[in-house]
């Protein structure tokens, strides 16, 4: 299955920590990771195999949203930073909307993502 991982700047360290906590599961379950550009760079540096798309502000969220709409992406882990403003907020909302339209599991914080990992 394909899982998208995205983290705003203030949440990137938490994303890497989260992935490390679930490393065994992510490596053993035939899971493919995709991500927005800068998140992917950090995640790759931490030793994970990930397909990087464009950076969020340049359209990365929109690319992932398209994969959700096409039925290619099966889960989205999106650690948003609710305390920061983002120029591409419309793209962020579109991604979350399409997850709801297509009933694709979406976690926007580590606690929820943790529950989704338990369900895998
Ligand atoms: O902005 C983002 C999500 O909206 C994340 O993009 P980056 O991973 O490129 O920082």
TrEMBL record:
Write down the top EC class of this protein.
lyase
The protein's UniProt keywords, in alphabetical order, are: Lyase
Q: Which InterPro entries match?
A: Methylgl_synth, Methylglyoxal_synth_AS, MGS-like_dom, MGS-like_dom_sf
Binding-site residues, substrate: 8, 12, 36-39, 55-56, 88
Locate the MGS-like domain: which residues? 1-120
Q: Which residues form the signal peptide?
A: none
- What Pfam families does the database record attribute to this sequence? MGS
A GO molecular function term, named singly, is: methylglyoxal synthase activity
Which branch of life, at top level? Bacteria
BP terms from Gene Ontology: methylglyoxal biosynthetic process
State whether keyword Transport applies. no
- Which EC numbers does the record give? 4.2.3.3
Record's keyword annotation contains Transcription regulation: no
Q: Which reaction does it catalyse?
A: dihydroxyacetone phosphate = methylglyoxal + phosphate
The catalytic site is made up of: 61
A GO-annotated cellular component: cytosol
The task this protein performs is described as:
Catalyzes the formation of methylglyoxal from dihydroxyacetone phosphate.
- Write out the similarity annotation: Belongs to the methylglyoxal synthase family.
Q: What is this protein called?
A: Methylglyoxal synthase
Species this chain originates from:
Mesoflavibacter zeaxanthinifaciens subsp. sabulilitoris
Its encoding gene is what? Answer: mgsA
């Amino acid at each position: 299955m394909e899982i998208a991982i995205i983290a705003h700047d203030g949440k990137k360290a938490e994303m890497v920590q989260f992935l490390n906590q679930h490393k065994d599961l992510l490596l053993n379950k035939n899971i493919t990771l995709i991500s927005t550009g800068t998140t992917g760079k950090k995640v790759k540096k931490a030793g994970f195999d990930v397909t990087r798309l464009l950076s969020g502000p340049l359209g990365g969220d929109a690319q992932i949203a398209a994969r959700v709409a096409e039925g290619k992406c099966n889960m989205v882990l999106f650690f948003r930073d609710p305390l920061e403003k983002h120029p591409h907020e419309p793209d962020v909302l579109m991604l979350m909307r399409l997850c709801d339209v297509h009933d694709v599991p979406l976690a926007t914080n580590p606690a929820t993502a943790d529950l989704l990992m338990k369900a895998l």
